[in-house]
């Protein structure tokens, strides 16, 4: 049976799958290759030399925009969004284990932002913070608060409106994952721990958390990667500070050198690195459990 020739349909399907993979990852590979051109390189093949010149331009701020600051700003924001997404999703999952009136309505409201166009969400949050700006300025004028009258410009910023906009995108995914996890969670493990004298906190730390830990890694991956490359929801809410995807979008209209490819390679590499680290942690947890 093992030595029987494969049917022709197998090779057809294999070829279709190979073309799909090439279509999916071919542009990324081409960008990485073209970003490694020499100082006289262009945006298309054939390549003109091989070097790390365009990467050095990014980190030395020798390009047309300040890339390094945008990179670390996006990185800090993505890490913050990741942590908040994990924490809020776990707390919400624990809360929804207890049936309460309006739970389903609250669930629909929480995930509604997934079906609303991202640019609409961004415009709404931007408009909301402009109303907050007007209220703060009116308060400063009415009460003659000097610090507001002279120093306040806007509440829009990376870790105010920007953080909220990104959470409207990442939290629904985290909530859906944790709801699915806790719906399948066997409460007898927790009951056994409490019968043995464990407190609620000890039960959560030593029983519940280790069981759901691999799923938390999945939520963390969603939180970081969705925030890291989010553009539409960032477009109207970041104030004067651009994130890395916003800088990349700006470069597409102004830069005619492989600098933009180098930026795309760095962005993709950072995402893949974090995913690899988190998957390594998940694999280590799995091996630890197997040994235990």
TrEMBL record:
Record protein name field: Putative spermidine/putrescine transport system permease protein
Coiled coil: none
Keywords assigned by UniProt, alphabetized: Cell membrane, Membrane, Transmembrane, Transmembrane helix, Transport
Subcellular location: Cell membrane
Family: Belongs to the binding-protein-dependent transport system permease family. CysTW subfamily.
Ranges where the ABC transmembrane type-1 domain occurs: 71-284
Transmembrane segments: 12-34, 75-96, 105-127, 163-182, 203-228, 260-285
Annotated Gene Ontology cellular component terms: plasma membrane
Membrane-topology descriptor: Multi-pass membrane protein
InterPro entries registered for this protein in UniProt: Bact_Polyamine_Transport, MetI-like, MetI-like_sf
Pfam family, one: BPD_transp_1
PROSITE patterns (alphabetical): ABC_TM1
Any Gene Ontology biological process: transmembrane transport
């Amino acid at each position: 049976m093992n030595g029987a020739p494969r049917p022709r349909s197998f090779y057809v399907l294999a070829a279709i799958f190979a073309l799909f993979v090439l279509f999916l990852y071919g542009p990324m590979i081409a960008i990485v290759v073209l970003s490694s051109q020499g100082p006289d390189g262009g945006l298309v093949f054939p390549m003109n030399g091989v070097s790390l010149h365009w990467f050095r331009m990014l980190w030395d701020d020798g390009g047309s925009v300040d890339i390094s600051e945008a990179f670390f700003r996006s990185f800090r924001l993505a890490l913050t969004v990741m942590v908040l997404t994990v924490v809020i999703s776990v707390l919400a999952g624990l809360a929804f284990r207890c049936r309460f009136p309006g739970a389903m309505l609250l669930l629909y409201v929480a995930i509604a932002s997934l079906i609303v166009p991202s640019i609409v969400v961004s415009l709404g949050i931007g408009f909301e913070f402009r109303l907050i700006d007007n209220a703060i300025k009116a308060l400063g004028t009415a009460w003659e608060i000097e610090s507001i009258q002279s120093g306040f410009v806007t509440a829009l910023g990376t870790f105010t409106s920007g953080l909220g906009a990104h959470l409207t995108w990442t939290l629904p995914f985290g909530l859906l994952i944790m709801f699915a996890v806790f719906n399948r969670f066997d409460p007898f493990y927790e009951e056994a721990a409490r019968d043995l004298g464990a407190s609620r906190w000890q039960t959560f730390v030593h029983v519940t958390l280790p069981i759901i830990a691999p799923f938390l890694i999945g939520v963390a991956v969603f939180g970081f990667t969705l925030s890291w490359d989010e553009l539409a929801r960032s477009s109207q809410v970041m104030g004067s500070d651009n994130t890395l995807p916003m800088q990349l979008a700006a470069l597409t209209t102004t830069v005619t050198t492989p600098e933009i490819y180098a930026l795309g390679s760095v962005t993709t590499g950072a995402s893949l690195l974090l995913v690899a680290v988190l998957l390594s942690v998940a694999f280590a947890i799995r091996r630890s459990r197997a040994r235990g």
